[in-house]
Amino acid sequence: MPEVTEPQHRSHPAMPQVNHIALPVADVARARNFYQGVFGLPELARPQLSVDGAWLALGGAQLHLTQAAPTSAAGSSIGHFALTVSRSELDSLVAGVQAHGGVVVRAPAVRQEHGRAVTWAICRDLDGNLFELTDAR
After folding, report:
1. CB-facing half-sphere around the CA of 4: CA atoms within 13 A
2. What is the average pLDDT across 27-54?
């Protein structure tokens, strides 16, 4: 992990933690089945909102799947989220992505990150949202 240096004059609040990741999806049920099928994410209670959606537990954060019209933004290769997984599970999760209709954009590979070998893969869900699976800590 990279060394973190504190600013000389601290004017920022404590380090923020991820609360949730919100993804636009064309079909909420299909997206829920994908993320539950691949990762086993349990569904959370969701308040009544103006659009359909589903909330799933994602470690200490949440994954919010929200009904939306497909956009060209989902085709971007820059915007993504990353999930830390164990190296021993990475290959089976990639296979799970494919088995549930997702696409593997970059097969598992190893890169050097801060002097440590890190295994990673890039995938797309059923709505084209890009995500990374990595054993980086």
Report:
1. 3
2. 93
- pLDDT for the residue 72: 47
Domains, the chain, with CATH or none? 20-134 (3.10.180.10)
Q: Which residues pair with 63 in a beta bridge?
A: 21, 56
Q: What share of the chain is helix, strand, coil (3-state, %, to 5)?
A: 20, 35, 40
- Spatial distance between the Cα atoms of 99 and 34, rounded to a whole number of angstroms: 9
- Report how far apart, in Å, the C-alpha atoms of 77 and of each of 57, 71, 105, 124 are: 25, 14, 10, 10
- Bridge partners (DSSP) of residue 16 are none
Is residue 134 within 8 A of residue 84, CB to CB? The reply is yes
Residue 88 belongs to what H/E stretch? Answer: helix 87-99
Q: Phi and psi of 57, rounded to 5°?
A: -75, 135
- Token readout for 125 is 């869900």
This prediction has a pTM of 0.73
